[in-house]
Amino acid sequence: MGSSISSICSAVLAAGFFGSTQLFAAAIPSPALLVLDKADSSLAIVDPATKTVVGRVPTGEAPHELTVSDDGKLAFASNYGARIPGHTLSVIDLEARKEIHRVDLSPMGRPHGLAYHDGKLYFTAELAKLIGGYDPSTNKVDWLLGTGQNKTHMILFTRDGSKAFTSNIDSNTVTAISTSGDWNETVIPVGKGPEGIDISPDGNVWSASSRDGGISIIDPATDTVKQTLHIGTKRSNRLKFTPDGKHVLVSDMGGNELLVIDASTGQVTKRLHIGRQPEGILVVSASEAGGEPRAYVAVSGDNALAILDLNTMEVTGHIATGRDPDGMAWAVRK
Question: Which end of the chain is more exposed for a tag (fewer CB within 10 A), N or C?
Fold first, then answer.
């Protein structure tokens, strides 16, 4: 009898342990929607199917931008800081739900834009007027390149990796950087206060100016502005193309609107009043979402994300996050 009871107890304990392991695994969905809550200094892990937060990970103070490794296992956050400039990056193990490295960038201050490219994390440091490279495999910053531009804010790479572009807010410029050889730089004058930046499917770079309500369209073959649009925003914060390349989304933080622009004509086709202070935009294709294409817009003043149906360009729901959401990423484990 004792041995039977012992066996039963062991089986129950094993089942309980196995069940809790399953629950823990289920709590980290794939895909996962990742959101940085600046005022909470944390990363929220959201199940996009249930629209609920299933986990949180502390970061450095006031994290702004977020990206993930190609295998979906690591997340990287730039800890911008609040009143005191930040100088760290958070490296987060998503399966373990914990920060595994706090990368000290001192004396480089105000890390912001992030891009994961060819196995390395690239970041901007606004106060140092540069971009840098961090190697997750060695946990070291092993490369730096000065831009000489004030408040180098965002960074992105072309699809073939041959060029990188940065938006430089206080210099009113975009820097085009050839990644071959000596990483040569070309400084391109654009509108006032460039922040949001993205690359169209045909390779053109669109830069949204936060201080004059304009968009500069850059030809990457010549690294010159070939067209300027005037969209009448009060403070353009982010700009993203839809997966099909037909539309451009611009968050107007000052006007509390999300603008939908026809990419072929440059005309504003919709102005959506989605809440207070829309900031970060994450666009997810139909294949990534496992259904219809959508966009998530961080409505920082309402502590929520707005969900935009990219077929109808209508808001279909909201997700409650933490305080002051901004940077987002889509993580798929491979």
Answer: N
